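Q: Structure for this?
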Amino acid sequence: MVPQQKTSPMPFHRYEPFAPVDLPDRTWPAKTITEAPRWLSTDLRDGNQALIEPMDSARKHEIFQLLVKMGYKEIEVGFPSASQTDFDFVRSLIEDDLIPDDVQISVLTQAREDLIERTVQSLVGAKRSTVHLYNATAPTFRRVVFRVDRQACKDIAVEGTRHVMRFAEQYLGETEYFGYEYSPEIFVDTELDFALEVCEAVMDVWQPGPGREIILNLPATVERSTPNVYADQIEWMSRNLSRREHVVLSVHPHNDRGTGVASAELAVMAGADRVEGCLFGHGERTGNVCLVTLGMNLFSQGVDPKIDFSDIDEIRRTVEHCTQLPVAPRHPYGGDLVYTAFSGSHQDAIKKGFTDLDARAEEAGKAVEDYPWDVPYLPIDPKDVGRNYEAVIRVNSQSGKGGVSYIMQRDHSLDLPRRLQIEFSQVIQAHMDTDGGEFQAEKIWGVFSDTYLAENGPVAVLAHRSSTAEDGTYTIEADARVNGEIRELKGTGNGPISAFGDALADVDVKVRVIDYVEHSMGEDGNARAAAYVEAEIDGRTVWGVGIHSSITTASLKAMCSAIGRA
Ligand SMILES: CC(=O)SCCNC(=O)CCNC(=O)[C@H](O)C(C)(C)COP(=O)(O)OP(=O)(O)OC[C@H]1O[C@@H](n2cnc3c(N)ncnc32)[C@H](O)[C@@H]1OP(=O)(O)O
Ligand SMILES: CC(C)C(=O)C(=O)O
Ligand SMILES: [Mg+2]
């Protein structure tokens, strides 16, 4: 019988289910995203206001420069009426001429006259700027925070917009561009008809038209529903707003349910033109939607994100330094561990994937970097974000032969034969059972050297000479140390391995060679060679390995290695 789940003791009855939107002819599920939306980074505002220690001026400048360098063209730089620090930062950007001509800064304010005035004052001298005004419109906020009815709530937005326009005229005069953004805060809990009514009233004041857009930002201030409901809300607004062609429909998803990225993506499918978020998902509570994830999700679908993530670790380091909060090791695209496989079957598939990719690129006459990426378990090429392949495969108790042999190949150019991979992987596993934890690449090499290359077995070749007769018979003469004694051995066969096997019979060492593989360990003429011998000795089947600049010496060493192993 299937085990029956029990009723949770938690008080789930205290919470209301979210209401679906009545939109049976929704169109967004059939849409695909083919181009990047307009991005706004609110790292310096929503991100900053949620930090344990808000950024000082130096850190704010660092983030601003990072955002500009990455390619963000709309940057919310603060809440100037909040503090002198916030105000002064905006002033320093403008007065020190730090804002590139193609970057638009914006500043946030509550819909209060005195705060709006101070906010607009902070922008004096800016070439391109936007004031962003918000007031909460949801029923709980109307009742609890503002203690107002619908009409009075709408009036706050309308009056606020008028103040913005009046103060802009008073303080800013003619600028290259002055824009306006309005957010009905808590949009997701606001009745849709009322959200629309407030936005229309705000537009009636701002009067959007050709060359005079308005940004209407519909925030999931607290994410409260599945992403499809948010998408329905956005599609409904997009369909019902007047002057739609002059409206930049913006979304501002938070991540309270952990679905901020999905909400943003479905919202874009539903008609949103613009997305606000923060790098690595900083922001209130569980954060704003992560701009890195959104951008890289597009990239991984072949869509230009219009943002440069090619040095993801530099981006991460800067964000960690400025926010003083760590990025989780499993954070999409930027976490330390996200391109690393520990588990055996993943490592095996990745290793095969790399080999296959190299082969197909070569066949197509293309550089691997230009060939379509298709490697199991790696959604993107780590090199595209500035990572190398060092960390792709790491070995612990969950790993198998694929991972171990990948490291031997990557770090030491040793292409272990399949059955040797199995044998060596068991050797590593035995160590792992004793030592536990992760097995670093150097430690794997140490075990390999001790196991196969130590030359501490009963037979060691000190020198050898060989000749081939006309009939092809190969003769070898070797000076060898056998059980501590120096002996001169001689044997014949069809090659060094069989001749040496024959010679060993004289000293009572019986070796039956099962398999032999050799390869060069590099491209240049001075490259060394690796030889692998699988042999049955005293009833045991073992592998031996030899490495030397002479392939014959490498083969003899491999024989001695196998004898030592047996
Ligand atoms: C969802 C968001 O992230 S919104 C952005 C939130 N960010 C911040 O608040 C950071 C910066 N804020 C601050 O530094 C301060 O809040 C300040 C300086 C702006 C204002 O401080 P104070 O004047 O002390 O007001 P306080 O922050 O307590 O705000 C509460 C008052 O503002 C009113 N209010 C809140 N939001 C708004 C708004 N958007 N528009 C108009 N009034 C508002 C409240 O109703 C309340 O009024 P009451 O005192 O008459 O009841
Ligand atoms: C000010 C608004 C846009 C906000 O941050 C939110 O609603 O989350
Ligand atoms: Mg927010």
